Structure formats: C-alpha cells, structure tokens
Amino acid sequence: MIQRSRARTRVATAAAVCALAVALAGCGGTTKKDSDNGGPAKTDAKADPGAPLKKGLKLAFLPKQINNPYEKIIDEAGITAAGEFGGKGKEVGPSDASASSQVSYINTLVQQRQDAILIAANDPNAVCGPLKQAMKKDIKVVAYDSDTAPACRQLFINQASSEEIGRSQVQHLAKQLDYKGQIAILSATQNATNQNTWIRFMKDELSKPAYKNMKLVKTVYGDDDDQKSFQETQGLLKAYPKLKGIIAPTTVGIAAAARYISGSSYEGKVVLNGLGTPNQMRKYVKDGTVEQFALWDPKKLGYLGSYAAAALASGQITGAEGEKFKAGKLGEYTVGKNGEVILGPPTVFEKSNIDKYHF
Ligand code: RAM
Q1: Once rounded to an integer, what is the mean pLDDT over residues 149-157?
Q2: Is the CB–ligand 1 distance for residue 194 below 6 Å?
C-alpha cells in the first residue's frame, strides 16, 4: 500500500515537472511533437503496405501479471501466431499487478534487443520512461488489453470499444435488477487503465435518468489477486447489507466474487455480472450463482497483437490512423484514432451458450 502510493506520488510529481517543462521549453527535447501533447508515439518513417513480414522477429509479451489465466491465454495465442509468420514469441512478467512491477522487465527486454514489446500496462505512466527508451532504439511498442499513455506506445490493441464495454455492463446489471437498488464495483488495481476507463463509462451511464433508482455505493479493488478479491467481496456484502448487485470488470475479480457468493446466504439475493472467462465461470453459471457475464476472445486478442507488432516491425504500418494490415486468419484491420486497433464486440455468456466456449 505504502509502496503503491509512493509510486503514484512519484509519477504525479514527474508529470507535474514535465507539464511545467513543456510550458517553458518542451518536455524531453527541443522539438515539440504530437506525442508530447498526448497523441500516440510518432515516427518519421513512411509505411510500406506491401512490405513482407520480416522473418525471425522477436516478440516479447509482458502481461499485467503472469499468473492471471486470462493474460496467459492472450500471450500463448500471440506466441503461437508469431510461429505462423516465422517469428519467435515469449512471455515474461511480474507476479503482481502493481504500478511499477513491469519496469525492470522492460529494461531487460530492451537490453535483449527484442523487435517488439507487447505490454498490458499496470499503470499508464509508470512504464513510460523505459518504453520510450525502447522506441528510441527502434523496438516497437504495442499495448494490449490495458493501455499506456498514448505517447509511450505505437499501437493499442483494444479488446472492444471501451465505451461499449463500460456501458454494457451497467445496462446488463440494470435489466437484471429491474433498474433498482444499491450496486458496487469490484475492480482490479487502482491504476489499471482498462478498468478505470470502463468505470468512467459505467458512471456516465449510471448518471442517465433511467438509472435514477440505482446507486453506486462503493468501488473496491481486489488488485487482480484472487484472495484479496474474495475478501473485498466479503467486506462489501457486510458493509452494505442492502446491496443488490456487483459489477466485477475483471476475470480474476468475478471468479473470486462468484466463489464467495456461491453457497453463501447471498446466493440468489445479490446479482453478480462483469467480465469473466467461460472456463472459470462455468460452474457458477450452472449452479445459478451467476446468470450472465461477458468477454471477448482473449486468443484472438493475442493473435491480433502479434500480427500488429509484426506489421510495425516490418514497416508495413507506422501506427498512423487509417493504415491497414492483415492479421493472418482474422483478416484485415485498420489503425484507428490514437493508434487504437479494435478487436470486436464482446460476447455475453449464459447457461444457454456457455458450453460452446472453452477458454
Ligand atoms: C483481468 C485483467 C485484464 C482484464 C480482464 C477482463 O484478467 O484485469 O486486464 O482485461 O480481467
């Protein structure tokens, strides 16, 4: 806890110093680029859409944490995809999802001269310094799952539209609750870019008149740690005896919350919804603890990330809006605003379809 808040203070101080420097002379250099204004990292290189994918590319996946089953699926699929185009993928990473836990791994990957680093960032800013160093050395940087600040990477592979992910979780839970009652959010870490973006859209959705009888009473953080998520669920239900629903926009959180609720006196009284993997949630859907939850296909996310990194490292694309590349059997994708590439809409899982999915 102390460590985390210190890290945050350091980041905030660095950002403040940088903001002041930009106002005076431009941060980190004399020429002011778009990236200094928060846009994605820029390069002078021109895209060559016809360039073949280079052989022997070295791609390194750096997940939020290595012991998260969801991140594992993404990275394994990305590594398999690298094999398809004659590249070599690997996964390295920390065992916890704290803000600065990925920094030393980035430094090592830079020393190893990987061709691309793919990162699910635990904090949008804490990883920026080393990622900028990587890009200076012509190592391509692709964020996936959880973005960095845009200036610190060339592309962000987003699972689906962040707005759709955020709003739809409120919409689904509201229907289940008949638009009434107290609700809470069980999130991942306090710094996670993806969860924080989704939560912003959840709050905006909840501010609409349709939800006037629903109240978000608390957001708690399970840190994508199974035990902490379990305890936070327990704490929430004790502190708010009238709680009617929980949204857990994290695969680790929703599985731990379901385990706590299943067989407890809360089963059938508190509705749990959010984002989970079918394999982890199957038994809770079957025993009635959870009626529905959503997710995209993490395998496709890893596969797309790998091809996007290869397209960058081969010069087919530079990360500019409108560029197109082919992601193997997933077909063609276009780079959107802010260097974002979107995989596609999430799937809602429930009793009727869950057995069709095995991840
Ligand atoms: C957890 C992680 C990950 C998120 C999924 C939904 O596994 O927090 O970043 O995308 O949940």
Answers
A1: 98
A2: yes
